[in-house]
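Dear Dr. H.,

I hope your travels went smoothly. While you were away I took the liberty of generating a structure for the chain from your last submission, since the lab meeting agenda had it listed for discussion. I wanted you to have the full record in hand beforehand rather than looking at slides cold. The sequence, exactly as received, is reproduced here:
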Amino acid sequence: MVNIPKLEADNTKPSRLKNFLWDVFDLFVFTLFVGGLVLFIRFFVVNPFIVVGQSMEPTFHQNDFIVIDKVTPKIKENINRGDVIVFVPKWEQYPFIKRVIGLPGENVLISWGKVYICQSQEFSSCEELPEPYLGSWVETKIQCIWTREKNKYYPLETWYFVMGDNRSHSADSRCCFGLGCYSGSSWEVTKDEILGKVYLRILPHFDTNF
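The corresponding predicted structure, in token form, is as follows:
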């Protein structure tokens, strides 16, 4: 009599399939968690931008990757002179990046290439603004384009006066962000237009002209 050995059933396939499904489920849950975290940070904590244009050179350059602070308590109420902010002017669709120069209630005077902060439209109330972030060769004109005028006061009622560091290549408060300061336009940046303060540059600029 020949003994034929009994073959044991192969139970490894269902086990492997079960482990595979658990791995897929774990990966899905992890991806969902990370994606949700990224979206939460993106919309409620910080906001990344890529700098377009030359208006903030030499501080920020074309293609710099920057991050703005959106979550610090009362960030929009804590705007100081010298801060770099990202905002969308009322008449524009795209974000601008500029430096805060004038604060609510002040008068900004541009006179013969220099910037003064004044408490009234009397020169005796003015003090020249130190601007160490500018090159020594930079001259601030009263408009974004060439003009014969050499002196102009910009009174601020409630909000902020901003300019780019690259004064000769910046559409900013001086020309009401490129529109020209006609009746009905404004050189002020309001709190509602501000997206946040720039507080981090993750990547430096790079040259795309090979």
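Two observations you may find useful: Strands lie at 46-50, 65-69, 84-87, 96-102, 107-111, 114-118, 126-128, 151-155, 161-163, 194-203. The longest strand covers residues 194-203.

With kind regards,
E. W.
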